[in-house]
Amino acid sequence: MGWLWVICLWAALQGSEDFITKDEYAKQLYYNPRGISCAECHGAKGEGRSIARYKHKNEVRTFAAPAINNVDFASFQKALNERKRGMPRYFLTDNEIRTLYYYLQQRQGGKK
Ligand code: HEC
Predict the structure, then answer these.
(1) Which tens digits make up the pLDDT trace of 42-73?
(2) Residue nearest to ligand 1 atom 23, measured at CA
(3) Which atom of ligand 1 is nearest to the CA of 75?
(4) How far apart are CA 98 and CA 26, in angstroms?
(5) Alpha carbon of 53 to ligand 1 centroid (Å)
(6) For 90-106, what is each residue's pLDDT tens digit?
């Protein structure tokens, strides 16, 4: 049984990052992308939602985040790499952007 212990120790030293599946990693990134969660504004499935209602000069306005589960990858990537109105800048790597895109694709129930 000695070898099993060694493997466990080795595994522990690699850090937990290696033990999550791609799906789990993608979910984590979507909910906690080194900043405010995408879900906070775009909804759990990237379906988009209204973030806030506020009054500006006595006029009720809503601040909404668009659906992001229906954009093609090129626009998705572009949106995350340039300054958007009301959208925080994240400085995500290409791989992270790809992972987030993957996450939203998964939430579509198989739609590619
Ligand atoms: C504070 C709220 C907020 C958060 C958090 C946020 N967004 Fe956004 N996002 C917006 C708003 C508002 C827009 C619309 C910007 C515009 O109209 O210029 C937007 C636009 C986008 C677009 C462009 C959609 C299109 O139709 O072109 C993408 C893609 C996107 N967000 C992805 C993300 C991802 C991925 C995350 C997490 C890493 C994220 N957003 C986090 C508010 C947010």
Answers:
(1) 999 999 999 888 888 889 988 899 999 999 99
(2) 79
(3) 27
(4) 9
(5) 17
(6) 889 999 999 999 999 98
